[in-house]
Task: structure prediction
Amino acid sequence: MPEEIFDVVNDLDEVVDRRPRSEVHRLDLKHRAVHVLVFNGKGELFLQKRSMSKDTHPGVWDSSSSGHLDSGEDYDACAIRELGEEIGLFVDEAPQRLFKVDACHATGQEFVWVYQCSAEGPFALHPEEIETGDWFAPSAVTAWLETKPNDFAPAFALIWRMLAQRTSLAG
Result:
């Protein structure tokens, strides 16, 4: 399978180059990603536990769905694609945009648009991407993050703290 090609972006999130995934990560180049937070009718958040085969942050808990933009892809299209690929949630339009995170160390130099949607599951988890997943009350996620931050991917931890500052969703 050919290696994924990512758009490399500058500090303003403008495309300046295209490079293979491994090179983008090895050289710590700025690129793009999405994170989608899926809540159910009870207000619980679905979290995925990343597969141990992932090249970054294996075996930790992360957003419901997340992934890199392919070269030439826009954020909304990526959010739709990742929901389908990772958890088998097929949607016709992009979920609600919440906020954008600037590229930084915690995100792995990714500019990230964070989205939110509602669904009840059950989900069809992609076994190469996700070890398991479960629903959690937002207050439980906040408490867990405070006591065991290393259980989570750094980007999710940052996103959850930012969400708590902006809304009441993070409990």
About this structure: The domain at 5-166 is CATH 3.90.79.10 (Nucleoside Triphosphate Pyrophosphohydrolase). Helices lie at 21-26, 75-87, 138-147, 154-166. The CA atoms of residues 106 and 154 lie 5 Å apart.
